[in-house]
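Hi R.,

Here's the chain you asked about this morning:
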Amino acid sequence: MRAVLVIASAALASILVTVLAITSDWSFQFHGSVRPAAAESPLPEIGPAPDFTLTSQDGAPVTLSDFRGKAVAVTFIFTRCIDTCPVLTPMMSFVQDRLGDDFGKKIVFISVTVDPERDTPQVLRDYAQAFGANLSGWFFVTGTSDVIRDVTRRYGVFAAKAADGNVDHSFLTSIIDPHGILRVQYLGVRFDPEEFRHDLLSLVNER
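And the predicted structure, written out as tokens:
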């Protein structure tokens, strides 16, 4: 299911802009509404996607704003996850293959770990290869605990380490257009991969 933040009036939009200008923060309340499924209906615009710089599976810096001109899907995972991440990552790998030549050239994926203490670049690289990720367009990224905590918060993702070392976290996949605008977010891991693919392609084909 896609969750979209819909601004219903100019007055409310003005208030939101003011608050964002004051806080420089993306801590917002989510309201779960589903975008109409009409093919001609464009994805809504939520606002500028929070930028970040993290470290890839190859040890190189990855900055979101470097991907201007491409559609970007940002999701949150960790490699020791044994329940939901092994559903989300293969689904994204399936969509990666279905995107063909557009993947890497026009569309990229970024998977952010929520377990940076254990998910080193090498661990992330092994994980990516295990799921058939095309690393020319899919980046598995980590950073310091403080930076990861800030990125998850700004994207509206909850993450907390449990007593057994596991990480409890919410699943939110954000789609960002070639202009750096956050357009829609998918809740959970069992969303429709064809709808996901269609949304990504709709952004790179927008006029």
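The mean pLDDT is 82.

Let me know if you need anything else.
M.
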